[in-house]
Amino acid sequence: xxxxxxxxxxxxxxxxxxxxxxxxxxxxxxxxxxxxxxxxxxxxxxxxxxxxxxxxxxxxxxxxxxxxxxxxxxxxxxxxxxxxxxxxxxxxxxxxxxxxxxxxxxxxxxxxxxxxxxxxxxxxxxxxxxxxxxxxxxxxxxxxxxxxxxxxxxxxxxxxxxxxxxxxxxxxxxxxxxxxxxxxxxxxxxxxxxxxxxxxxxxxxxxxxxxxxxx
Length: 215
Prior knowledge:
This protein starts with a helix and ends with a helix.
């Protein structure tokens, strides 16, 4: 099966409509990532079919939770989940934030080759980043802990926005350590086609008292 067909089949199982152009962009992104991986070791996953599952479909599993117009991918790394989501949410503006130079160089090159006009790449530590406008959605994949995410990136979320943390197993211990100025909206199991491992999405919002203090 071709990479394009694997993407099509997986996205259908996720209930995500993909245009022919989006499928082509996602496949091109994987080819570019595979090529850069040889020199820069951006991800541990090397097999193209595994990359479809662990990178593309895993990223797209939170597609329906994205709210724009401004979306921040914290610690974007190789552009996951930011680039697949930017391809499939062309109406949103994505900021891919990472402090590593080789990763941001890849993100800039990938955005250019894929002609993604809705992506901005920023090289900065998350705690040092001061955007002119806050974000409607702040998303993280493989960030350390929920408490660390909120401490470092919580201030980048708009008062009426949402923070989406992609996790593996249900994060019981992390949930009990949530700071009081954020509210847990829900923890949702994510079912990734072809992946035999647990995935969960933690949806957090600034608490009303926290919102009032920002006004």
